């Protein structure tokens, strides 16, 4: 069977191809020479399948889309405290190249140039040279893309010839001691970072790496930690689309970053990475066809982050008693279902808080639980622990190991003093007794 996803993406691409509104960025003269007809849409899953239509292999400069990735590397290199002390995370409500600082003397966020130039300066350690910083950035972004990225020297030179605004920003930052390096050197490094060549396919993989908690789905390499990814995606959500973040969140609802060369990257946590490329920009500086395509895909595929996921009506699918009438061998089995997070686990806690259980043994059947996060795991194990303290014997029926090592936390805490351990079995039949 031919996948309908490619057919769908091709249809979307052709629907928006005729739209030639917008203007190419011209403040970097070389960008005005790009072919305005180029158009690509790519979707990468978090297990590395890429669906690409249009011109997914055409290279263009990454520009501002480098900012969230360099922010991620800076967080890894310096830790959250240092970075947050230097760069805030508030939407600025101003142009991306504004000369402004907040009340504490920090750039408003890492997605505007003042913040991005500062995060660039923070890569590595205090004693790093600009060359080392740039190498770290090229290596890091290449890791996100899963292939070696190169700098477009022509675009870089063209931007550097006209970098007066970014130089002004860097001098302002230096004046207020936001960084201490030589401003032109930092601007040159930052401009080189923005001149890395990517394709729409690369951007989709970079986005999928964010969507996949920092693990590149092609190479399997963990590039940055899950905590760093959460921070980066949050800032992309509030500040990633220049001054149209509000429209973007309501219409599309995917953490995203756009760049003046026409790229637009979106990362939907736990689901997919997306990328579009089309050089003509709207008056906010976002790719016109890119924004429209994202709006359409998000609507058609229900990708808005605020979309409420289908909820399993009942987390406790049913309750049965095994070995009924067999005294000490009676087991009350609670069959749980779905993917459990806080709200699902709360239902289980509530069920047990509201009733007395008469059987001496209790089993949680996890056969139909597909996944549970660390909070749900902790809450279910806490229910188990309290049942044990009430004198029950507790079993997990867990054929797929969705709760590995259930007793590990109890061993770690000597105060818990459990009378018995939680027993793990693979199926209900292991709990069934033959009537004699
Ligand atoms: N290199 C560009 C600049 O700093 C990037 C801008 C952008 O893509 O928004 O002006």
TrEMBL record:
This protein's record includes keyword Cytoplasm: no
Binding sites annotated in the UniProt record for substrate: 64, 113, 159, 166, 190, 242, 260
InterPro entries: Beta-lactam/transpept-like, Glutaminase, STAS_dom, STAS_dom_sf
Sequence ranges assigned to domain STAS in this UniProt record: 329-403
Listed GO biological process terms: glutamate biosynthetic process; L-glutamine catabolic process
PROSITE patterns in the record: STAS
SUPFAM superfamilies registered for this protein in UniProt: beta-lactamase/transpeptidase-like, SpoIIaa-like
Pfam families: Glutaminase, STAS
EC number: 3.5.1.2
Keyword set, alphabetical order: Acetylation, Hydrolase
GO MF annotation: an example: glutaminase activity
Catalytic activity: L-glutamine + H2O = L-glutamate + NH4(+)
Keyword ATP-binding among record annotations: no
Membership in a protein family: Belongs to the glutaminase family.
PANTHER family assigned: GLUTAMINASE
Subunit structure: Homotetramer.
Name the UniProt record assigns to this protein: Glutaminase
Biological source species: Corynebacterium falsenii
Classification lineage: Bacteria, Bacillati, Actinomycetota, Actinomycetes, Mycobacteriales
């Amino acid at each position: 069977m031919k996948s309908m996803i490619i057919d769908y993406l091709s249809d979307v691409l052709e629907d928006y191809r005729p739209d030639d509104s917008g203007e190419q960025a011209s403040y970097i003269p070389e960008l005005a020479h790009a072919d305005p007809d180029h158009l690509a849409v790519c979707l990468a899953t978090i297990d590395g399948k890429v669906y690409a239509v249009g011109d997914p292999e055409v290279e263009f400069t990454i520009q501002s889309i480098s900012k969230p990735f360099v922010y991620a590397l800076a967080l890894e290199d310096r830790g959250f405290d240092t970075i947050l002390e230097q760069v805030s995370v508030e939407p600025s409500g101003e142009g991306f190249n504004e000369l402004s600082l907040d009340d504490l003397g920090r750039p408003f966020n890492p997605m505007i140039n003042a913040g991005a130039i500062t995060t660039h300066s923070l890569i590595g350690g205090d004693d790093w040279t600009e060359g080392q910083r740039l190498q770290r950035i090229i290596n890091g972004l290449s890791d996100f893309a899963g292939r070696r990225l190169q700098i477009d020297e022509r675009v870089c030179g063209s931007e550097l010839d006209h970098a007066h605004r970014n130089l002004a920003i860097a001098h302002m930052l230096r004046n207020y001691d936001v960084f201490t390096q030589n401003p032109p050197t930092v601007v040159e490094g930052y401009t080189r970072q923005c001149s890395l060549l990517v394709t729409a396919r690369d951007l989709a993989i970079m986005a999928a790496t964010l969507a996949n908690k920092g693990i590149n789905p092609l190479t399997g390499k963990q590039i940055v930690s899950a905590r760093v990814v959460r921070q980066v995606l949050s800032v992309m959500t509030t500040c990633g689309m220049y001054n149209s973040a509000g429209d973007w969140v309501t219409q599309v609802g995917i953490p995203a970053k756009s760049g003046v060369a026409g790229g637009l990257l979106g990362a939907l946590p736990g689901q997919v990475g997306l990328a579009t490329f089309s050089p003509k920009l709207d008056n906010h500086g976002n790719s016109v066809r890119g924004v429209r395509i994202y709006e359409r895909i998000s609507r058609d595929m229900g990708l808005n982050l605020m979309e409420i996921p289908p909820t399993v009506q009942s987390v406790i699918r049913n309750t049965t008693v095994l070995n009924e009438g067999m005294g000490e061998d009676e087991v009350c089995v609670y069959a749980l279902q779905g993917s459990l997070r806080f709200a699902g686990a709360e239902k289980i806690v509530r069920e047990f808080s509201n009733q007395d259980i008469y059987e001496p043994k209790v089993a949680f059947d996890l056969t139909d639980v597909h996944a549970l996060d660390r909070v749900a795991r902790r809450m279910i194990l806490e229910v188990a622990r309290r049942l044990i303290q009430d004198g029950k014997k507790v079993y997990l029926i867990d054929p797929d190991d969705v709760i590995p090592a259930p007793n590990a936390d109890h061993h770690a805490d000597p105060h818990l003093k459990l009378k018995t351990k939680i027993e793990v079995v693979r199926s209900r039949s292991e709990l069934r007794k033959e009537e004699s």
